[in-house]
Design goal:
188 residues; alpha/beta; Rossmann fold; 7 helices; fatty acid metabolism
């Protein structure tokens, strides 16, 4: 099977299937530990840099207003390492800790997702349509140590945050800032 992506015909599906078939047939070694960010994203960035893979965007986002964000594999890798450092250092999260993200689908949603994979942090996505009761339940049930949201959604979340006994850090994504919240863009 072949899939066309922006006019570039490549055998994406068959390449993936053949890779997994080669693992199942013991022709390739299954890694003991697999991390998508370092094992795939960073490898593709290296192959592009070496000229052994055509340069394609790793991430391409377009807002309803036509604003575009386009990152290469190298840029996404670098940004996700920085974001992982923000989560590990400023938010004091460690491997296995949980972070709840209540964000609209902005580029930072995907960046933080990859950063969590890179750092071994469990990323728990939540839609911006969650109620305060929903968010409170998710924070308690997951024992999340960090909540990530936008500057526009933060006021609605603040009412439930004091009751979350595990929450240690609050990270805001957006142009605005709030007292008691870390600003992701500034830290990045």
């Amino acid at each position: 099977p072949c899939r066309s992506f922006h006019g570039n015909n490549r055998l994406l599906t068959s390449q993936i299937v053949s890779y997994y078939e080669s693992i199942n047939q013991c022709k390739k070694e299954l890694p003991e530990y697999f991390n998508f960010a370092s094992d795939v994203l960073d490898e593709w960035a290296r192959l592009e840099k070496d000229g052994r893979r055509p340069a394609n965007p790793a991430f391409w986002w377009v807002s309803a207003e036509g604003e575009e964000v386009k990152w290469s594999f190298a840029e996404l890798g670098s940004l996700s390492r920085k974001a992982a450092n923000v989560l590990s250092e400023a938010c004091a999260l460690q491997r296995g800790d949980r972070a709840v993200a209540v964000l609209p689908r902005v580029p930072e949603w995907w960046l933080l997702n990859v950063a969590c994979v890179r750092a071994g942090i469990v990323f728990i996505p939540g839609t911006s349509q969650l109620t305060a009761k929903d968010i409170s339940y998710r924070l308690q049930a997951s024992k999340a140590k960090c909540i990530i949201t936008s500057d526009t959604l933060a006021p609605a979340l603040e009412s439930v945050l004091p009751s979350s006994q595990f929450l240690k850090s609050k990270l805001i994504v957006g142009r605005g800032s709030r007292d008691g919240w870390l600003n992701f863009k500034e830290l990045l």
